[in-house]
Amino acid sequence: MAGVAGTQAEHRLGMALVALSAGVFGLAGILTKSIEADPLTVTSWRGLVGGVLISAYVLWRRARGGGESLHLGWQGWLLAGLGTFASIAFIASFKNTYVANVVVIYATVPFVVALMAWVLANEAFRRETAVAATACLAGVAIMVGSGLGGGHAFGDFLALVTTFAFALYAALVRRFRTAPVVWAGAVSAFLGVLPAWFVADPLATSARDVPLLAAFGFAFALAVVLWTEGARRIPAAEAGLIGTAEVPIGIFFAWLFLSEVPPAASLAGGAIVLSAVFAHAWRDWNTARRPIAARGQSQNV
Question: What does pTM read for this prediction?
Answer without folding.
Answer: 0.85
